[in-house]
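So, can you check what follows?
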Amino acid sequence: MVCAGAAIAPGDVIIGDVDGVVVVPKAKASDVAKAGADRLAKEEKSRARLKNGELGLDFYGLRAKLAELGVTYVDEG
């Protein structure tokens, strides 16, 4: 079957949210679910670090990237 140009087979997983819809082939559903769970866990850790006052600038390694680009970060907090 084809829906909006996407091929869909029996057993495929259809996932949708406000950003769109995706078809996950049945054979990849387990891997995709694990990747999604891993991503959620990573985001929870990041939110906890931000809540504790750590700057994303530091734990994402962006301070060094800004320095490479010749940008000076000024903390006015």
In short: The longest helix spans residues 29-51. The mean pLDDT is 91.
